[in-house]
Amino acid sequence: MAGWDPGDVRPVVIGMTGASGAVYAVRLLQELARLEQPVHLLVSGAAWDVIRLEMGWPIPPGDGEALLQWAGIAPGRVFCHDLRDFSAPVASGSHLTRAMVIVPCSMGTLAAVAAGSSDNLLERAADTHLKEGRPLILVPRETPLHLIHLENMVRAARAGARIVPAMPAFYHRPQTMMDLVDFVVGKILDQLQLPHTLFRRWGAPGEEAGGVDRT
Predict the structure, then answer these.
(1) Which one of 63, 146, 181, 197 has the largest count of C-beta atoms within 10 Å of its C-beta?
(2) What pLDDT sits at residue 203?
(3) Number of structural domains, the chain?
(4) Domain of residue 161, CATH code
């Protein structure tokens, strides 16, 4: 893929917040591990609750090593940080990164990003990516959306963030729930300019109009 350099050792920052959709973050971490991509992982308190509820994993809050074990990821390239630790490398723009992804992105975190708030390390890292002009990808998972949500997305987008809602498509003819998850994760990887084969692209050989009846 154009833009991907396997020798680029700059880490990707992954922020997990308390919106539904922990599986998107876990699947993204697994793909980044496959690519041997270094990762800084930031998990909010509410996100730990969602992980236990949605994934069924009995992980104590703050136990990043246990999260990686349950996800089948070797810990060597993933660095977990406490959100109160502003001495972590990602608190500073001088620490070079490839990009940051907040997945899933709660409406509270979206509001903080749109307002330039830095009340914890996750919010500070997001603010740093905007001020340094580095890719910041927000993956909101909420419905319905009211006007404040929409306006916050506009404000974040105007500041430089990319909004990638967790909205799976169906033209690739998904057969399982994980096919739907992989589509969203593939879209995130596209924004990171990282290679993947998580879904069949529109117009791929052997497909008829992407599987869509256009009559």
Answers:
(1) 181
(2) 86
(3) 1
(4) 3.40.50.1950
